[in-house]
Hints:
globular; disordered N terminus; mainly alpha; 200 residues; 74% helix; 8 helices; single chain
Amino acid sequence: xxxxxxxxxxxxxxxxxxxxxxxxxxxxxxxxxxxxxxxxxxxxxxxxxxxxxxxxxxxxxxxxxxxxxxxxxxxxxxxxxxxxxxxxxxxxxxxxxxxxxxxxxxxxxxxxxxxxxxxxxxxxxxxxxxxxxxxxxxxxxxxxxxxxxxxxxxxxxxxxxxxxxxxxxxxxxxxxxxxxxxxxxxxxxxxxxxxxxxxx
Length: 200
C-alpha cells in the first residue's frame, strides 16, 4: 500500500536525519539542524493551517472515484514542490507573491474542505503543488544562516508530512464515524482564519 510505504519512508527520514545533521564536520558550531527545521512549520499559523488543510482535503478524496491514489498524491505533490520552493528560496530566487500565495492556500484549501469539493485529480494536485511552492520558498528564505541545510530541510519536510498525515487521519476517521461534518467545519474555520494571517 502506498500509505504504508510513505509512513516507512518518513520513519526512516526521522531516524536518520539526526545522524545526517552530525555528518557535516565542515560546519563547526552550527546550531540549526533537524529539530529546528521540524519545529518551523509548527511555529507559524499559516504553515500549520495550510499543511493540515492539505491532509483534511486529501482525506475527503477517497470517495471521488480515484480511491487511495487521490488521498496520497496531493500530500506527496506538496512535499515534492515544498522542497523545490525551499531550494529556490534558500538560493535567493524570489518567487513573486509568496505571502499572498500562502494566505490564498489557507483560504482555498479551507473552502475546498468545507464544501468537500472534488476536483479532477490533475487539477487538485497542480493546485496543491502551486501552494507548496509558496510555502517552500518561505521556508527557504526563513532558514537561519547558520543552518545545516540538509538536516534543517529534512526537519521541515518531515513535520509537513506529519501535519498532512494528521489531517488525512482526522478526515478518514470522521468519515468512518459518520461525522463528515467535522472536517467540513474545520475547513470553514481555516477559510475564515485566512484574512487574519495578513495581519500576522
